[in-house]
Protein: VOC family protein
Amino acid sequence: MALPGAMLDHVIINARDDLDHAADTYRRLGFTLTPRGYHSLGSMNHLAMFGNDFLELIAVPKGATIRRDLLSYSLGLNGLAFGTEDSTTTYDALSKAGLPVEPPLEFIRPVEVDGAARDARFRAVRMKEGGVPYGRVFFIHHFTRDLLWRDEWRHHANGVVAVVRAMIVDANPVAGTKLYADMFGPEVVRDIKGGKKVVVGNANIEVITETTLKDQFGPSVPNAEGREAYMAGLTFRTVSLTKVAQALQAGEIEFVQRPGQLVVPARVALNALLEFVE
Structure:
């Protein structure tokens, strides 16, 4: 049975129980966010939709008694979701390959489109709790893509059109990329300076040492909060760095400008380092 194809579907910023603050921050970063949604599992979210992928801000209501796992994770980048068109086959293939996966889980999120109430439907194939040391990794099967990828939600003041990189810190990048080699096949893993990268469609996941991250981004890196392995940040593709700079200035967001990139320090963006490139 063939392993699933490697395609990044979306990345997840954990806002714990303060989605209001997260939404305000990411709007000021220049992202257009979807209306607040409520999952049947108990979490709530806003999305920033791009061409073929998206950014999700996720949280639970204050005082929530379900989905409290989100409160146990640190603030910031916390999840990577990969796409599948056949979650049952994906589960069977990963199980056969010996990966620690949970059986497929279905859930919905009501969406209002053109004045009508609809249910966005999903099925997730998740890694078992404790199987990933630095956050959540899972596959997502969209049954109602037309309810998410809508043109009115794809236009952003910062000009972002795609996620092109997710950065993970791990003192042992070889061990940190074993999961992806097992999920997608060893050919998706490549050597890079200070670590490894995983090619997932049009994006890369870089698993690098903390020293390597600090060499690249200096004081803009996130607070590790004592973690030896953690998801550190994201790189976005934009149509124009000028548009990014203008959006950040309008939102009164601190940033660092370098040749060919703009960087928003993690302390400004819910402990997630954000890089923008053309």
Summary: The mean pLDDT is 95. Residues 160-277 form a domain with the 2,3-Dihydroxybiphenyl 1,2-Dioxygenase; domain 1 fold (CATH 3.10.180.10). The radius of gyration is 18 Å. The first strand starts at residue 8 and ends at 14.
